[in-house]
């Protein structure tokens, strides 16, 4: 992820993918990662760490510059010399030994005698040069370059381990790295025989307003502990916060434990987005141990034991949710300074042991994906979170015009196929509670006869299938993991049959 505390995105890194609009959701993901590192057993026998020097620009052979790309190898279960190769692709954050030790893909590797690999995404974790965060150097950060890295890495491992043609490669990833898993299979089908893409947003979208809408649908979903009353309470709470903010911003800051009072509209938007993140994170990682489940959140927002009739009731309950967040984090207050956000994102120094990711991921959202979780239309949160407020960072941080973003997103979809990705023999896995399913593939099929398979888990959250199973898992999740295993085993048999012909 494994400990029950870490069943989350478990193998996803820092900023998941998922382009997170506010800072709290990113911090919640990091906390899940930290719990994973602290609680999981770490039998490191057979695990090795390595580096490969990759070209910074694979599409310009006259450019000699390189960067060190980190990877891990687990040979413990490998059935030499022709056992399968399972490649776990890193996303927008660091990898660790756990990426070749824990999770459903690691369990399958042990069962099937696979060589297990994890490779870190360029410019994240330790796979970055000291000057990598400078704006002029970020031009080498892209999913296209990352896929080329994977192709070179494939060659490196094949040579280093003297792999034969009988070694079948399968790739795995979740969220953004799930998209990379699918795209790697699509762009380099001769290198990877099949791919599992969990919660993979393969369709780039500038204005991802559907995210908030899907969060609202989950808040009313009785199958996972939601209700119409819960959704109404969340809507009322944000309306009340906006109303109080208009007359007494200092009171709002005090009630929600902010580090400072909002100085202007930008700070107010930061506050609203951070409050929304508490709800969004609870939905996106429902029952995965990050903060609270939908049922627990709705329990707070609709607590029958408290008095009713007070128009500030929903407001006070949202305050209570914020207090729960504070009590589970190491933060003494909620930082809502937009000025500090910009300052942090403009910092180009490498520190925190390579764990920084916000600047890099913000750059990728500006240049490739969008994914901005706006709230201008049907939304249970504050409508002050607009596309303009989200995208102004592109010009502030990188000098990228807001007017150019739509064209950049359109190119990404043209390059990869968007809603109809140019992939074959890819298994797309999605959960019904996960808002990111809206940008993934949830129906089997494909154009040109290139069929793709899907596993849809009606009541599961983001990347829930990637964690190691436990007794208390929902039946639907257990069944989904079985289906994934059947596909992987089927691919290995198909590959063996093709080689024998």
CATH topology of the largest domain: Rossmann fold
Structural class: alpha/beta
Unreliable sequence segments: 1-21
Give the number of helices.
15
CATH architecture of the largest domain: 3-Layer(aba) Sandwich
Tell me the name of the CATH class of the largest domain: Alpha Beta
Query: How many domains, in number, for the residues?
Result: 2
Given the C-alpha coordinates, what overall shape results? globular
- What is the ordering of alpha helices and beta strands? HEEEHEHEHEEHHHHHHHHEHHEEH
CATH superfamily of the largest domain: Alpha/Beta hydrolase fold, catalytic domain
Oligomeric state: single chain
Count of individual beta strands: 10
Q: How much helicity do the residues have?
A: 40-55%
Distance between the termini: 39 Å
Strands of the widest sheet, in order across it, are: 1-2-4-3-5-6-9-10
Describe what this molecule looks like in 3D:
The protein is α/β, with parallel strands linked by helices and about 500 residues long. It folds into 2 domains: about 5-205 and about 415-500, Alpha/Beta hydrolase fold, catalytic domain (Rossmann fold, 3-Layer(aba) Sandwich); about 205-400, no CATH class. The protein has 15 helices and 10 strands. It has an 8-stranded mixed sheet with strand order 1-2-4-3-5-6-9-10, sandwiched between helices. Strands 7-8 form a two-stranded parallel ribbon. β3, α2 (about 105-110) and β4 form a beta-alpha-beta unit. α1 (about 25-40) packs across α8 (about 265-285) and α5 (about 210-220) packs across α8 (about 265-285). Residues about 1-20 have low confidence and may be disordered.
């Amino acid at each position: 992820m494994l400990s029950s505390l870490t069943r989350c995105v478990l193998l996803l890194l820092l900023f998941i993918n998922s382009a997170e609009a506010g800072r709290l959701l990113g911090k919640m993901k990091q906390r899940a990662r930290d719990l994973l590192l602290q609680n999981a057993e770490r039998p490191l026998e057979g695990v090795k760490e390595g580096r490969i020097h990759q070209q910074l620009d694979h599409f310009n052979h006259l450019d000699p510059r390189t960067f060190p790309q980190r990877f891990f190898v687990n040979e413990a279960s490998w059935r030499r010399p022709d056992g399968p190769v399972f490649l776990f692709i890193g996303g927008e954050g660091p990898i660790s030994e756990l990426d070749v030790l824990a999770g459903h893909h690691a369990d399958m590797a042990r069962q099937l005698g696979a060589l297990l690999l994890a490779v870190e995404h360029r410019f994240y974790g330790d796979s970055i040069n000291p000057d990598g965060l400078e704006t002029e150097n970020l031009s080498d950060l892209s999913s296209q370059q990352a896929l080329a890295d994977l192709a070179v890495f494939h060659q490196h491992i094949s040579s280093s381990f003297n792999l034969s043609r009988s070694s079948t490669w399968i790739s795995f990833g979740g969220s953004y790295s799930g998209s990379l898993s699918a795209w790697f299979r699509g762009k380099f089908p001769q290198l990877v025989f099949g791919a599992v893409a969990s919660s993979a947003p393969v369709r780039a979208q500038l204005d991802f307003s559907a995210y908030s809408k899907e969060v609202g649908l989950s808040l009313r979903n009785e199958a996972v502990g939601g209700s119409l009353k819960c959704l109404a309470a969340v809507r009322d709470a944000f309306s009340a916060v906006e109303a109080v903010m208009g007359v007494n911003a200092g009171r709002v800051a005090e009630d929600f434990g902010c580090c400072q009072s909002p100085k202007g509209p930008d700070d107010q938007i930061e506050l609203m987005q951070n409050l929304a993140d508490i709800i969004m994170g609870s939905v996106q990682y429902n029952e995965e141990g990050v903060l609270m489940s939908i049922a627990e959140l709705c329990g707070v927002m609709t607590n029958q034991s408290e008095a009713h009739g007070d128009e500030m009731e929903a407001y006070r309950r949202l305050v209570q949710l914020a207090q729960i967040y504070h009590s589970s984090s190491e933060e003494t207050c909620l930082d809502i300074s937009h000025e500090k956000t910009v300052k942090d994102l403009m910092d180009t120094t490498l520190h925190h042991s390579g764990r920084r990711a916000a600047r890099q991921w913000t750059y990728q959202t500006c240049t490739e994906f969008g994914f901005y979780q706006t709230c201008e239309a049907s939304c249970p949160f504050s409508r002050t979170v607009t596309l303009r407020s989200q995208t102004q960072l592109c010009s502030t941080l990188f000098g990228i015009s807001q007017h150019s973003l739509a064209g950049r997103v359109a190119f990404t979809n043209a390059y990869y196929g968007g809603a109809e990705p140019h992939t074959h023999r890819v298994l797309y896995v999605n959960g019904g509670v996960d808002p990111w399913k809206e940008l993934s593939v949830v129906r089997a099929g494909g154009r040109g006869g290139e069929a793709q398979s899907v596993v849809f888990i009606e009541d599961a959250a983001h990347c829930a299938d990637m964690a190691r199973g436990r007794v208390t898992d929902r039946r639907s999740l257990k069944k989904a993991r079985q289906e994934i295993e059947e596909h992987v085993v089927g691919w290995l048999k198909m590959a063996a049959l093709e080689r024998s012909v």
